[in-house]
Amino acid sequence: MNPARRCSALFGQLCASSRGGPTARRSFSPGAVSAPAGTRQCHPSVVAGGGGGGGAKGTCPSGAPTAGAAAVCPMGGSSSSSSRLFGTLAQSLKSVPLTQPDPYLEENPDQDLAEIDPDQLLRECEEALQRRPARPHRDLVYPNGMAPCHHMRSPPIRVMQWNILAQALGEGKDGFVRCPLDALKWQERKYLILEEILTYRPDIVCLQEVDHYYDTFQPIMASLGYQGSFMAKPWSPCLDVEQNNGPDGCALFYRRSRFSLQATAHLRLSAMMLPTNQVAIVQTLNCQATGQQLCVAVTHLKARSGWERLRSAQGADLLQSLRSITSGRGSNSQSQAVPRSIPLVVCGDFNAEPSEDVYRRFSSSPLGLNSAYKLLSSDGETEPAYTTWKIRPSGESCSTLDYIWYSHDALSVECLLDIPTEEQIGPDRLPSYHYPSDHLSLLCDVRFREEPYRLM
Predict the structure, then answer these.
(1) pLDDT at 356 exceeding the cut of 80
(2) Which residues have a Cβ under 8 Å from the Cβ of 407 and sit 6 or more positions away?
(3) Per residue in 367-398, pLDDT tens?
(4) pLDDT tens, 174-198?
(5) Cis peptide before 420 (omega within 30 of 0)
(6) Is 380 left (phi over 0), alpha (psi -120 to 50) or beta?
(7) pTM beyond 0.85, yes or no
(8) Distances 298 to 252, 283, 295, 360, 395 between C-alpha atoms, Å
(9) What contacts 383, CB < 8 A, 6 or more positions away?
């Protein structure tokens, strides 16, 4: 049995035994959830109006307006006598030595796992984090005053993009000089990451710098109803750190109740005809609610200044692959098989500011891509002031590097998770006791645009 299957099977057994049997299952909604009264969690509220996000709120590295900023939720304890599913899983997996699987193999986890109650797991995360301050409060914002479209036939698709910070890099190489080392301990930081995912319940989750895929994310997400795929960097810098957990890479999860998988491509990005250390996962999904196809990609481009030309070449290579993958023919029998591209969502840490050439390549691509987070600005054309904010020995870095690109002719953005203010992030920046990564998570709800013939 390969490691992914062994983790999944173990997790299912733990869940079944802790709940009294394998038949005890509970269905759940992918929307935002409400925590029990008195819990630590700070849940999003929904507000309407343009300029509610990072572009309108943030200036950096200092001087971000704080008037009207939402207060950080107070800490609180949970009175729930939960079965500590996650803690039990983590302890059990720690005692089972796992070999690192081939990073290019596609996972095929068991489909009959006992499902975990996400509300219960969220309460356990909150209980484990009682001594930590709450994460910054963030609102779901409808850009330009748009109200939710309840009359639309297809439900929105919630997409999360997040560089979660590889554990080996956070503790061993990145040198966050204002972040205490105990704030980076995996024993608690993993709860913060899961808490963020469980709070927003995305349908699609795109992660970078994942170095605990097989022992943490794959089994837990599988039991929450997600199918996962992982691709490691060929020469991950995590391997240079003593007592590492294997290479880091990109991970893509989709909710099995919402999508079925049509095809997967694991790409090693090239530049000037030469393979590089950066990768991408591209999956073509079929939306079970509408029957429409959606192509989703996750990537992490080369970091550091001085590598702008390489990032541009990597972006060009990815765009070429995406154009080939998404070119297809419509399934409507009355269309006489007119060629039509599959709608596309591309998530990633591009390590590139909007002024870089790779950003211009994506914004001017024939694929018709637009950056979702521009919609938070007052003019709809400006990216947030920052998606990452950290302090290293070389100085303070406040940058916009993370993006969710989408096919604007085929998809519409309904709402987005706004960007925390400087006050909410705090003077020591990221990561911290209250936030697990040096990058902020991005999240938006997208919806298929209804075609004219569908409206008749």
Answers:
(1) yes
(2) 341, 343, 344, 345, 367, 368, 369
(3) 999 999 999 999 999 999 999 999 999 899 99
(4) 888 899 999 999 999 999 999 999 9
(5) no
(6) left
(7) no
(8) 7, 9, 10, 18, 29
(9) 54, 55, 354, 371, 373, 374, 377, 400, 403
CB 256 within 8 Å of CB 225: yes
Beta bridge partners of 296: 283, 345
Return the structure tokens found at 34. Answer: 């409400």
Q: What is the token pair recorded at 398?
A: 């406040």
Reading the block at residue 305, the tokens are 């200044």
Residue type, 116: I
| 3-class DSSP string for the chain | CCHHHHHHHHHHHHHHHHHCCCCCCCCCCCCCCCCCCCCCCCCCCEEECCCCCHHHHCCCCCCCCCCCCCCCCCCCCCCCCCCCHHHHHHHHHHCCCCCCCCCCCCCCCCCCCCCCCHHHHHHHHHHHCCCCCCCCCCCEEEHHHCCCCCCCCCCCEEEEEEECCCHHHHHHCCCCCCCCHHHHCHHHHHHHHHHHHHHHCCCEEEEEEECCHHHHHHHHHHHCCEEEEEEECCCCHHHHCCCCCCCCEEEEEEECCCEEEEEEEEEEEEECCEEEEEEEEEEEEEECCCCCEEEEEEEECCCCCCCHHHHHHHHHHHHHHHHHHHEEECCCHHHCCCEEECCEEEEEECCCCCCCHHHHHHHCCCCCEEEHHHHHCCCCCCCCCCCEEEEECCEEEEECCEEEEEECCCEEEEEEECCCCHHHHCCCCCCECCECCCECCEEEEEEECCCHHHHC
Amino acid present at 331: S
